[in-house]
Structure formats: C-alpha cells, structure tokens
Design a protein that fits this description.
The structure holds two protein chains of two kinds. By secondary structure, chain A is an alpha/beta fold. Helices cover 43% and strands 21% of the residues of chain A. Chain A is built from twelve helices and eleven strands. In chain A, strand 2, helix 2 and strand 3 form a beta-alpha-beta unit. In chain B, helix 3 packs across helix 4 and helix 4 runs antiparallel to helix 5. In chain B, 36% of the residues are buried. Chains A and B meet through helix 9, helix 10, helix 11 and helix 12 of A and helix 5 of B.
Chain lengths: 314, 170
C-alpha cells in the first residue's frame, strides 16, 4: 500500500530545507511513496526551492486558508489509500514510515501518530506523545506523556498530533477532515481524533516512528504569545461546545466555564478567558452546525471515548 | 515555626517567567527584614517551584484546606511585610493574592512586577484595587454567564433537532 507524504507549509522555505530532504529520503527508503507540499499561500520562495531542488515532489499551491484547510486540500489531492501529514518543522527519521503503515493495517484503525522528540532527541515538554484527555473545569484537559518508559509500545491514544500522523484517506473523507471551526490553528487534530473514536474507530500511538519537532518555530514566528494563547483557549471552548454531547456533563461544563472566566481577575495571567469565551461566541452558529453533525454521526459516548483512548475498555 | 511579627509573607502563583520577580521579592524581604522568616501561601502547583527557590515554609492552598482557613493562618502569623508577585508589567489580576495580603495584616505591602523594581503600596490603595477588581470579576461573571446561557440554549436546540442521540447519554 502506498501513502502520500503531505508536508504542510506556510512561508517555511528555511524549514523545508531540512524537513523535505528527510521526508523524501524516508519515502524512498520505504518504497517510493509520493511526496507533496501543500502550501498555504506562501509569499517566500518555497515554490522555487521545491521545484528546483525536488522536481519529483508535487507542489499544491493554495489560497490563504490556514493549517486545517491545507491539510484537507492535501488529503483530497492524495491519490493513495493512505496519507501522512507532516508539519514543515518536523524532521522525520529515515525509517519512520513502515511502522506507521504496519499499525494502520490493524483492524478498525483510523490514524496513527508518530513519536515526537525535541530536535536534541529529548522528551522534555514534547507534545503529541500518547495523548489522553479528561473533562475538567469546563474544558478537555490534555495530557501528553513524557515518561520514556511509557512510550515504548504501540498503544491507543486520544488523537494523533497534526504535526506527524498517518491515516486512511477514505475514513478522513467520511469524517470531513479537519473542521474549519478551529481556524487558524490548534485543537483541530484533537477534534479529529475525538470524532474518530466517536465513530467507533481507533487512533494509535506508534513509538517506532520517530520524528523531531521544533515546536513553535512556525506559530512563534507568526503570532505573539498572548495571541497564540487566545487562539488556543478559544478553540478549547469551541471544542467543548461542539463535542461534549452528554447533556449532564455539558450543563456542568458551561457552569464551570462561567467560573473559569472570573479567573481573569481572581488569578490573572494568560490566556484571557473572558475574551476567549467572547471570541468563541462569535462562532456559535458554526459550532452549533458542527455539534448537530456530531450528534448524527456519534455512536460512542463521551466517557467511553476517553476510556477507550486510554486503552481501558474494549 | 517563627513567632508572631517575625515573619514576612511571599504571595505568588510561581508561574513560568516569574522566577526573577520572585528572586527580587525574596531579596527585598530578606534585606528589609533580615531577622524575619519567609513563608508563602502556595498552590500544590507553585509549591515545588517555590521550594526550588528556597522557600520551605509553605501554607498550601488546595481542596483540603478552605480559603477561610488559609486566610486565618496567614493572619495568625502576623507578617511584618508581604510581597505580591505579578506575572506581567502591570498589577493585573491576582485579586486572590491581594486579598490575602490585605487580610494578613502585613505592615508593609510590596508589589513586584515582572519589569521594574518592587514598589511599596498603601493599604488603602490596595483595598481600592481589591474592590475594583471584585467589581470587574462580577462583570466578567455576568458576561460569561450570558455567553454560556446563549451557548447552552443554541447548542442544545441544535443537538435535539439533529436527532441521533445514540451516544449522548452517560
């Protein structure tokens, strides 16, 4: 089976200089898998660099629409059964692909996430490894495992980090890909994983597929820290509004969100919570549409999704 | 444990980036009150960071201890001074810590911002700040309640109209 390696890029020519050769080498090493750059309206010379240095790599030039739209366009353009999405700041190891494909062939699996290491090979504050979640204080609190001993075996996880994940293209299309509700970025991969579990599919973590991620090298360049915090908090609220279908939990969650907003003054610091709620409210209509869609498609309850993603039940 | 009037109080959430302001606050307290022991009101999260910075005497503020008991404990020790560490360049938020500083009865209260040197703040000034922030908190609660009520109605109606309901129950 072939998989298309899709690198998501926005003004990241300097990042592509490192990440693209590694992806091309890994694709060749695993049996000549196609490689594509899905470009979110770069204004630097990314196109020139790719077309000159890697003529065999397909360059998908897109209008400016954000990370999720670039992923969706890349997945739609893939002509293979499987696809692997990679951030332009993710450098893959040469043998990262075969274990991903092997895990994808397990029954009922939708997606498999890579093992994310810092560029120096450490796991300190590394995000995206063996992810799990818990509904608490009005939001889904995410946990990223950083204990090396817990990251040795293929196992279930809540969502595959959007920076490096493999998936079945047909299931991706059934899910509708990444939801534009989360524009410009953050939480769309959590949403994807949550919805996949909700449909009875599985998401796995594959520690043999090692990638190196220079976290924040793109977002840190494009936005100020407070803006990143605001986007992330807004999307955390929207995620809860869209996905928490259990009526009792949902009522409790909204009450907690009210209290959460008061923490702006009582505690302070980032993110500005009331502003996050207000920003999220401006997308309420869109969130309601997504929630209705989720209500129609969901076959697994909220609690069961979290339990299954921790490997606690069948 | 230090007796009354031989303590000074450090108030901080010990967030990332506050390390230098905490060090400055500790230096100020130990310089101004060399014979006094430092104690801090901390959360379970901030306790570890404070211990790393050399503050061992901690009153932990968590679910096992009510806010009233923590306030009583801080007041019982009658600190000679209190230093509040803020996360930013302006004294925003931190209503909780300002309230503890006021209720502790500390003779002198300092504000330590992430930029600039610590400044002495009068009790009346701090009381004004606490009252203003309490009003602001009420405003935030009202705004958030409005948003969440609207969200609840709209989202629940959308969910009910969508049908399905195969997995919505607990």
């Amino acid at each position: 089976m072939k998989a298309t390696l899709i690198i998501i890029n926005h003004n990241g020519r300097h990042l592509l200089e490192t990440s693209l050769p590694a992806a091309v080498a890994a694709a060749r090493c695993a049996g000549d898998h196609p490689v594509m750059v899905s470009d979110d309206a770069s204004t630097d010379d990314s196109l020139l660099f790719v077309s000159k240095s890697f003529p065999a790599v397909r360059f998908l030039a897109l209008p400016k629409a954000g990370f999720g739209a670039a992923c969706n366009a890349g997945a739609a353009a893939a002509e293979t059964e499987l696809a692997v999405i990679l951030n332009n700041d993710v450098v893959v190891s040469e043998d990262f692909l075969p274990p991903l494909l092997e895990s994808l062939s397990q029954p009922n699996v939708f997606a498999v996430g890579c093992k994310f290491l810092n560029p120096d090979g450490s796991l300190t504050h590394a995000l995206g490894n063996r992810t799990s979640g818990e509904w608490r204080k009005g939001l889904l609190y995410l946990h990223h495992e950083t204990d090396p001993e817990m990251l040795t075996e293929t196992c279930p996880q809540l969502y595959p980090n959007g920076g490096g994940m493999a998936f079945w293209c047909d299931k991706w299309r059934q899910l509708g890909g990444l939801d534009p509700l989360y524009h410009p970025i953050y939480w769309e991969d959590v949403d994807l994983g949550y919805r996949a579990w909700g449909r009875g599919w599985r998401v796995l973590y594959e520690p043999r597929s090692i990638v190196y991620h220079d976290q924040g090298s793109t977002m840190g360049r494009l936005h100020r820290p407070w803006r990143i915090e605001l986007i992330s908090a807004k999307n955390a609220v929207l995620f809860a509004w869209k996905n928490l279908l259990d009526p009792k939990l949902f009522r409790r969650l909204l009450c907690e969100q009210v209290r959460w907003a008061a923490d702006d003054i009582v505690i302070g610091g980032l993110p500005p919570r009331t502003r996050a709620l207000w920003t999220a409210a401006r997308q309420l209509r869109q969130a309601a549409r997504s929630r209705a869609q989720e209500q129609r498609e969901r076959i697994v309850s909220d609690q069961e999704i979290l339990a299954r993603s921790r490997g606690e039940s069948a | 444990m230090s007796g009354p009037n031989h303590t000074v109080l450090l108030l901080t959430f010990a967030r990332r980036g506050e390390e230098s302001a905490i060090r400055e606050a500790l230096a100020l307290l130990s310089h101004s009150f060399p014979d006094a022991a430092v104690f801090a009101v901390a959360t379970p999260v901030s306790a570890a960071s404070l211990e790393l910075l050399g503050v061992a005497d901690l009153v932990i503020f968590d679910h096992t201890r009510s806010a009233r008991r923590v306030l009583a404990e801080a007041a019982r020790r009658k600190p000679r001074a209190a230093a509040i560490v803020y996360s930013g360049a302006r004294p925003e938020g931190h209503l909780k810590l300002e309230f503890v500083a006021l209720r502790s009865g500390a003779g002198r209260i300092y504000r330590c911002l992430s930029e600039g040197s610590p400044e002495l703040v009068g009790r009346v000034h701090l009381l004004g700040s606490v009252l203003w922030k309490a009003v602001l908190t009420c405003g935030h609660l009202v705004a958030a309640a409005g948003i969440c009520c609207a969200a609840f109605c709209w989202l629940r109606v959308a969910q009910l109209l969508a049908g399905g309901r195969r997995a919505s129950g607990t």
